[in-house]
Fold this protein.
Amino acid sequence: MLVKNAWYVAAWADELGAAPLGRRICDEAVVLFRDAAGRASALADYCCHRSAPLSAGKVVETGLECGYHGMVYGGDGACVSIPGQVHIPPKARVRNYPLVEKDALLWIWMGHASQADPAQIVDYPFHNDTANWPHKHTMYEIAGSANLMVDNLMDLTHLAYVHTTTIGGNAKAHVEAIMQTTPTETGLKFTRWMLETAPPPTYRKGAPQLADKIDRWQEFEFIAPGAVLQYTGATDAGTGAYDRGIRDGGFQLRIFHGLTPATETTCYYFWSGANGYRQNEPQATLDLYNELEVAFKEDVRIVGLQQARLSEVGEDVLINIVADGARVHMRRVIEKLLAKENAAPVLV
Amino acid sequence: MLVKNAWYVAAWADELGAAPLGRRICDEAVVLFRDAAGRASALADYCCHRSAPLSAGKVVETGLECGYHGMVYGGDGACVSIPGQVHIPPKARVRNYPLVEKDALLWIWMGHASQADPAQIVDYPFHNDTANWPHKHTMYEIAGSANLMVDNLMDLTHLAYVHTTTIGGNAKAHVEAIMQTTPTETGLKFTRWMLETAPPPTYRKGAPQLADKIDRWQEFEFIAPGAVLQYTGATDAGTGAYDRGIRDGGFQLRIFHGLTPATETTCYYFWSGANGYRQNEPQATLDLYNELEVAFKEDVRIVGLQQARLSEVGEDVLINIVADGARVHMRRVIEKLLAKENAAPVLV
Amino acid sequence: MLVKNAWYVAAWADELGAAPLGRRICDEAVVLFRDAAGRASALADYCCHRSAPLSAGKVVETGLECGYHGMVYGGDGACVSIPGQVHIPPKARVRNYPLVEKDALLWIWMGHASQADPAQIVDYPFHNDTANWPHKHTMYEIAGSANLMVDNLMDLTHLAYVHTTTIGGNAKAHVEAIMQTTPTETGLKFTRWMLETAPPPTYRKGAPQLADKIDRWQEFEFIAPGAVLQYTGATDAGTGAYDRGIRDGGFQLRIFHGLTPATETTCYYFWSGANGYRQNEPQATLDLYNELEVAFKEDVRIVGLQQARLSEVGEDVLINIVADGARVHMRRVIEKLLAKENAAPVLV
């Protein structure tokens, strides 16, 4: 079961240029396109004439033209022209999905359009604040469910096993991190502090001035069903980051994680990494991205392996451990959304 | 549902040499082979001993020998020898399919053998008339149903969208073509005239002497369930092709299209292109073939995309448009054949 | 249906080094690993925390560590440590499969552990007797069932059709071989004699001194469900191999064949070839292996083709022939094992 009454990232805004873009979202084929004025829309990705994918067509002056027999659709899904035919029957239309461009992202709503409230879209102004948070972003197709990728972010003890060469660090330090979890209206927040610990390789490269012992924080906010906002960093140990809120002068970064279900067992992973320590150096932003990419591809690998096995054995044979606190809470939030949605089914 | 009581093209005659040839036709595994005398036969493609595919065997003096333990089958499907055994039990046989070699093609009948009448096989003498219609042929495996490929040929408005760089031409001219459709006993015929139109690139290359405005005709005959015969050409505009039947001196070609279901959603596409304008120039025949190949691979691409989406959304969400007249008629002919066949099921 | 109450080869002992090894056996995901002391164990290949495959983990001092969040398992399947947690709940365990290292092989029992008797494991001391039977071994993954591979070995008339260029020889000689089949408690034995026959290419290469006519023997023992032990060779015709038991001085080899179901329609093929004629020449052992490899890959090919077709047409349309005696007996032995196992189902 996938939550449909929700805003998901459909694409990075800059992924969508002059050509239409096909995506599978919540197991539905969707086409994104920008009309002649640059306004982005999302439609069901098939022509209502002979079902050719509209993503194989092209954008023309009046809308999105099917590449087979030339029918053209407006951004609302209504057919606006049929070659050789004056009358356009009312049934000549395909489903339109609410789509909003915000903070460098295209957000799509897969459920009942009447319930789509753009005010509920995650705020991430850092994508626009290139002076303080210059970033670089990408998208991966993952052979695992969106939930498994969110799981991954909710239990950071994996850093010591999966990311030993990048953002990991000492296993004991991770396990003994000071962890505080707070429910929110839309999900949960948690903060982890690892005090007087050695900087992992990525931190060392980003901020060579760091001392051999650092105080390291990780603030995560999960906004159901698919967004995780990360603010993390470190300063020299004992200089006040933990007890006095002094976080300047060390290493700090922000990561946006957007997980969008493609199917029940596959997803898109949209992420950006923002450099909050050497903002005037594009190379530093690029270096950070490259470091994160190595780590995140390690996640992609383990989650793909996990999904394959999980599809076989099922969740019922598994057990929870102490480290699963945030993860279990996160899953409950999603279960509640599903229960609410199923009580009042989406009619489209 | 696939029509089985019908003659389908199983292969080009020259595809079948000394080695047996395996094909999947109407979702059955079939092996074609020529015996020592060159006579072609079609059998179920498995040995009745241990089910090794006979297409992995070889032709010997007495028939088709299984490549595993050496059983040999005659063209009628009866086993003629079992190594180490004198008695051949009557059950030692595999199904034989009626097969006829005609007009450079091998035609197979997948339904009840007693209903197979070779007189019903499509006539296409042009394949033998190399003086007037020198041709070149090929076969593609298509990731779409045979019906979708016939659809493609029944609605030529797609030329302006799919084949812009080859046989397409101006969209408006296609849409405004004079179209006349005539039912036949075995399917339908239609003729399209595009008067005073610019020659598309393929015509221009084939007949450089054509004027800037031509009168262009396309005559199609669909013979259910899988053959489409095409005669098409152009002369300088206003020189009598349309109103006085004068078609000489311009550009004309014939195309044989044979669509054979491999499965419900895949097919073989057998086609030939015959040069009716510079018959003494082998290079002209080759040039025509190369032009058509570019166009037909565009069809292969769009139909594959269409099939993938159609398998997901189904026909019921689709609508017909004005340009679908011939296509809709063609589908009705096939529906009638299926209804007839299902009323008196094929017993084999 | 697969026999589970049986010892199957899980791996060659030397395949399992410091890294864990994942295999699919009887359609279950299994991980093999050696602990710090070198002792091999087999577990279900998923972590009971979040189902990451343990085969993606690594061996540590205390056992097999999951590569995702660091849980460690002992060879008995019990979790011995959970990072960040003192108490190990009793449910923190995965299934252990009995595993025995013997004769260079790792033998696994996929059924009820209480019925696993190591005394029932096939004896093959020749793997340890490197002075008299130096050997080389390998494993193939086969796109056909284990039963089809055993079939292959039970009906050697295929040699004349599948292995014409290696170990085959004259078809008539194979068909006319003197064949004696003897049931055993655990399967069957058969001996084939081909007298006064020409040496096939592999024999000729191995023992160039052989005369142009040889007496050739093949002794096979099938031990259900997956082992076939082969002792084969030849001496110059009429020198007493057949009637007086004099087998020295010619060409002789032993082959171990271990077939282990991966799924119902795929298997692992473990085989070794031992040189019993020029034991002091490593190159002779290697040459033999290379010859056998060519032949066995011919079997892999035909069995893969056979399985694909058999999965489609089923066994019911097939017939038995005279050459099927040993094969049919072998299948009955397996049917009995299955019937016995189903009467008292495996509880795990």
